[in-house]
Amino acid sequence: MTAPLLLAIAGSPRRHGNSERLLDACLDGIAEGGANAEKLAVVEYGIEPCDGCNACSSTGECHIRDRMQEVYPLLDAADAIVVASPVFFATVPAALKALYDRCQPYWARRYVLGEPPPERKRPGALLLARGGGDPYGFEAAAITTRSLFAVLGVSYDAELCVSGVDGPRDVDGRPDALAEARRIGAETASRAAR
Length: 194
Fold this sequence. Notes:
Layout: E1 5-10, H1 18-32, E2 36-41, H2 56-59, H3 68-77, E3 80-86, H4 94-101, H5 104-111, E4 124-129, H6 139-152, E5 158-162, H7 175-193
Parallel strand pairs: 1-2, 1-3, 3-4, 4-5
């Protein structure tokens, strides 16, 4: 039996910051759980935003030809998906939101073109990091991700929300958060193998 493949999406516009450090800890747990993982740093893909043309409602495909065309096969092949993101104005940053919005073809295939839903939902998890001061916390980022997962046929099995990490590597001083991210990775790997 081959090891499951997990797609680990780093959603920050800044590489190797707090949310990506959480994702790296999660990746350690995924490896310990016996799964393989592919890490996708969204900022390196230069994904264009959805232009709302609605072509995918006719074709089931996005007409924009950019590196999102490389992301679709990764989303399709993944046995589980983990997203890590900072929280910007209560939600995910623009680069990650562009990826989310470009998943409109999955919605169109299911709800407009009548493609049946997947037989089995794949496991999913969300890791969020934020500084402080925003009165709206993590809720909008979590709901936005839950919506994406629903369209992709991914269950929302685990969530880690870490506050008070303003500096680029403040999360390194939070061994509890890193340990929890690692545990989530191992558990997600285990779920993907079932």
